Amino acid sequence: MNAAAATVPRHLPMALLLIRASIVLMLAPWIADKFLNPGHAIAVFEGFYGLAGIAEPLVYAIGIAQVLLVLCFALGALRTWSYGLVTLMHAGSTFSSWQQYLNPFEGANLLFFAAWPMLAACIALFLLRDYDQLLSMEQKRR
């Protein structure tokens, strides 16, 4: 590793923390939706993922798994796994909305385009995970 690569820009840890916190802020209502309005979550699974007949207990189980995953992510714990799985989870929801991108000016379809910078932020955070040290449980390995 050369000297330039070893130098971390002073504001990088704060920038990565802000990205991590904003991703958690975006995911939290979607996770809460599974507990507060499981019927809506079932409709989302059917409409966007083609998974008809999802039972309410399965929605709760998915919600619990997501709570645990996003908690690890929020705390900067198990970064390779938690950041990677959050990125894959968001990529799945972004790509499953492909029909909304074909008709951007119908209804609220323009809102779906916000998923792309969010996906880019998830990927960037995953790639820079070793530098995400601020308020992180997993300290940089020396």
Gyration radius, in Å: 17 Å
Instruction: Assign the structural class, choosing from mainly alpha, mainly beta, alpha/beta, alpha+beta, or little secondary structure.
Output: mainly alpha
Which segments are poorly predicted (pLDDT under 50) over 5 or more consecutive residues? none
Tell me, briefly, the overall form. Answer: globular
Summarize model confidence as the mean pLDDT.
92
The strand count comes to 0
Order of helices and strands: HHHHHHH
**CA-to-CA gap between the ends?**
13 Å
Number of helices: 7
Question: How much helix is in the residues?
Answer: 55-70%
Largest sheet: none
Strand content: under 5%
Could you characterize what this model shows?
- The structure is a single chain.
- With 142 residues, this protein is mainly α.
- The protein is 68% helix and 0% strand.
- It has helices spanning 3-6, 12-36, 38-49, 56-75, 79-96, 98-102, 115-127.
- The longest helix has 25 residues, at 12-36.
- The chain is globular, with a radius of gyration of 17 Å.
